[in-house]
Write a structure and sequence with these properties.
L-methionine binds at residues 438-440, 491, 606. This protein has 27 helices and 22 strands. It is α/β, with parallel strands linked by helices.
Length: 766
């Protein structure tokens, strides 16, 4: 019985690639130094899977930024502004597309389906010239082969690539991106030919868009694409991989009828209904089924007995020699190796499996199906499953009763947002176009050292508080010098916006090295929600009160919202997600009320990940949005009208949920706008009325590029064309923690100057 891994984490067990990338970007190391780190990591990954007994090992899943950008490079689809002149795409062009440079902005970045991973959105149009411009897929296959590992090269499928793209600037919004299929397939044929010549026997096309709601025109594109590729693929075994949800019935029919395809991969963790399609709608005779039974998106140990039962039922349909045990999706969405967690509670640790352990689970299931079941391994797994179900640390009856009592109310504030804004303006006395930032300020090396030494008990609590207070004072002073209107304390006490809160809530566990890539070199360490959630003590009041005492200007209290804490954590899978979210909402509600009692007049409750959690299928949207928006309202339903509630959202397509955003009933929302070509503003141009305060981001903080005053003023004027002057705020796209002060100071200076410039223009026009 064969085994397969869809993809594997790239950063390394100790984030080796992250540090290599950042050192290269800072000019401290060379491209050769970076490639040496990458080569060593790839070799380690392939060896690990080979040693574990995995038969179908992926290659070309390693990336310096993301796999969609890699495909853009492969196709030579470089926007003109990067001045690429042809040939093999180098790192300068590649990273300019991802991060921008001193003269041009980066391409748009958005979420990869409903995950916290991001990708760079291709910009295409009728004049885009495609050419084979990156040989990465072939080079990595050869690299693995030279190490004695025969891999399955992985490519983003041609149809999904186009469906994940957008019309380039200046191209009609309705431009049919699928019309470019005939232009990109010749490049795919060249890649396929080189892989065949190099000795590849399998190739994997990731076509995750097949789990979306697709019309007949889009489904026909899959049939056309693979019919066109059929002769090029002759002699190869071809796997088309899907993940993240069920494959709809019509898409299943299309997929299983594709020309030249040998195997189909399905996510059977989040796509349980696909099981029914395989058994009831039939499965093509002689084809392989790659069964994704081991969860690639969470850290819980697989219930091996249940998965084995599922596989045995599939075996009866497709045949023993045609069933391959696989992960539900790439393991890049989970942490790397549980072995590195030497301080994690032993009971909780027994419930977990990171990427390295999931590889072993896949192999163990494959061997069990082949009659080589490791009885001791399965018995230990069953004991861990039983331990988790019966552990008293998982359940808190008081929390469950409080969450159950939420039913029957929609938890709205008592007055309308317009009445509240009037009351808040009397309290805060802000100018037209008030300026603010999103929360975090640059996290310096010294600041990280202080936090690290405090956690390691190398400095006292008194020394830690003194150092953090000094940093807050610097941030407050800088904002006053810049003349920003509503201040933040800069979050120097926080390494991560979710981890910080999870550390102070019950029902959470934390890892030392459970890092997961979010984009580029950016890694997050999601907390693990293993039990019922409550707030034993105030979490932010001390720091917010201290910061407010340093200034007469309004100081925002900074919280992470319940939906974002949920979506950016590894969540327990033994109860519905909405139940866990309501528990978190009640905990945050207590914190909001304590901040208000401490004299904080502006409180920001970030819901950066609300859109990210939206189910991939439209039929499931309403239920999710109902409990997600309700959870946010719970957090602030009982505060005074004079307390201003902000929320923040970033890097997603918000246009299709704008009415739910309005229903959150926040007083002010700051929202990503600049990197997505001001796509958000089109909602308001199309007639949506928004009465609360709103701050569409005026510059992209994920690029080192510093925007000019004129550029920011132009963005603000575009906003004023569709939004009322009295509700518009001026702010960056997101928090500033990933930037350097040398970038932040001039960018914020220009932002404030732009706001003042337009205020003067508005005043003179009266």
């Amino acid at each position: 019985m064969a085994s397969h891994i869809v993809g594997y984490p790239r950063m390394g067990p100790k984030r080796e690639l992250k540090f290599a990338l950042e050192s290269f970007w800072d000019g401290k190391t060379t491209a050769e130094d970076l490639e040496k780190v990458a080569t060593d990591l790839r070799a380690s990954i392939w060896k690990q899977m080979a040693d574990a007994g995995i038969k179908y090992i992926p290659s070309n899943t390693f990336s310096y930024y993301d796999q969609v950008l890699d495909t853009t490079a492969m196709l030579g689809a470089v926007p003109e502004r990067y001045s690429w002149t042809g040939g093999e795409i180098g790192l300068d062009t590649y990273f300019s597309m991802a991060r921008g440079n001193a003269t041009v902005p980066a391409m748009e970045m958005t979420k990869w389906f409903d995950t916290n991973y991001h990708f760079i959105v291709p910009e295409l149009g009728p004049n885009t010239k495609f050419s084979y411009a990156s040989h990465k897929a072939v080079n990595e296959y050869k690299e693995a082969k030279a190490l004695g590992v025969d891999t399955v090269p992985v490519l983003i499928g041609p149809v999904s690539y186009l469906l994940l793209s957008k019309p380039a600037k200046g191209v009609e919004k309705g431009f049919p991106l699928l019309s470019l299929l005939s232009s990109i397939l010749p490049v795919y044929k060249e890649v396929i030919a080189e892989l065949k010549a190099a000795g590849a026997s399998w190739i994997q096309f990731d076509e995750p868009t097949l789990v979306l709601d697709l019309d007949s025109n889009k489904l026909a594109a899959f049939s056309a694409a693979y019919a066109e590729l059929e002769s090029a693929l002759s002699g190869l075994n071809v796997l088309v991989e899907t993940y993240f949800a069920d494959v709809p019935a019509e898409s299943y029919k299309t997929l299983t009828s594709l020309s030249g395809v040998t195997a189909y991969g399905f996510d059977l963790v989040r796509g349980t209904q696909t099981l029914g399609l395989v058994t009831s709608a039939g499965f093509p005779a002689g084809k392989y089924l790659f069964a994704g039974v081991v969860d690639g998106r969470n850290i819980w140990a697989d219930d091996l007995a249940t998965s084995l039962s599922t596989l045995q039922s599939l075996e009866a349909v497709v045949g023993k020699d045609k069933l391959v045990v696989s992960t539900s999706c790439s393991l890049m969405h989970t942490a790397v190796d549980l072995v590195n967690e030497t301080k994690l509670d032993s009971e909780i640790k027994s419930w977990l499996a990171f990427a390295a352990q999931k590889v072993v689970e896949v192999d163990a299931l494959a061997k069990a199906l082949a009659g080589q079941k490791d009885e001791a391994y399965f018995a230990a797994n069953a004991a861990a499953q039983a331990s988790r179900k019966s552990s008293p640390r998982v359940t808190n009856e008081e929390v469950q009763k409080a969450a159950a009592a939420l039913k029957g109310s929609d938890h709205r504030r008592a007055t309308t947002v317009s009445a509240r804004l009037d009351a808040q303006q009397k309290e805060l006395n802000l100018p037209v176009l008030p300026t603010t930032t999103i929360g975090s300020f640059p996290q310096t090396v010294e600041l990280r050292r202080v936090r690290r030494e405090y956690k390691a008990k190398k400095i006292s609590e008194e020394e830690y508080v003194s150092a953090i207070k000094e940093e807050i004072s610097k941030v407050v002073k800088l904002q006053e010098e810049l003349d920003i209107d509503v201040l933040v304390h800069g979050e120097p006490e926080r390494n991560d916006m979710v981890e910080y809160f999870g550390e102070q809530l019950s029902g959470f566990a934390f890892t030392a090295n459970g890092w997961v890539q979010s984009y580029g070199s950016r890694c997050v360490k999601p907390p693990i929600i293993y039990g019922d959630v409550s707030r034993p003590n105030p979490m932010t009041v001390f720091w917010s009160k201290m910061a407010q005492s340093l200034t007469s200007r309004p100081m925002k209290g900074m919280l992470t919202g319940p939906v974002t804490i949920l979506n950016w954590s590894f969540v327990r899978n033994d109860q519905p997600r909405f139940e866990t979210c309501y528990q978190i909402a009640l905990a945050i509600k207590k914190e909001v009320e304590d901040l208000e009692a401490a004299g904080i007049k502006v409180i920001q409750i970030d819901e950066a990940a609300l859109r990210e959690g939206l189910p991939l299928r439209k039929a499931e949207h309403a239920f999710y949005l109902d409990w997600a928006v309700h959870s946010f309202r719970i957090t602030n339903c009982e505060i005074q009208d004079t307390t201003q509630i902000h929320t923040h959202m970033c890097y997603s397509n918000f246009n299709d949920i704008i009415h739910s955003i309005i229903d959150m009933d926040a007083d002010v929302i700051t929202i990503e706008n600049s990197r997505s070509d001001e796509k958000l503003l089109s909602v308001f141009r199309e007639g949506v009325k928004y009465g609360a305060g709103i701050g569409p981001g005026v510059y992209d903080i994920h690029s080192p590029r510093i925007p000019s005053t004129e550029e920011i003023a132009d963005r603000v004027n575009k906003m004023l064309a569709v939004l009322d002057t009295n509700i518009l705020w001026v702010n960056p796209d997101c928090g500033l923690k990933t930037r350097k002060y040398a970038e932040v100071k001039p960018a914020l200076t220009n932002m404030v100057s732009a706001a003042k410039l337009i205020r003067a223009e508005l005043a003179s026009a009266k």
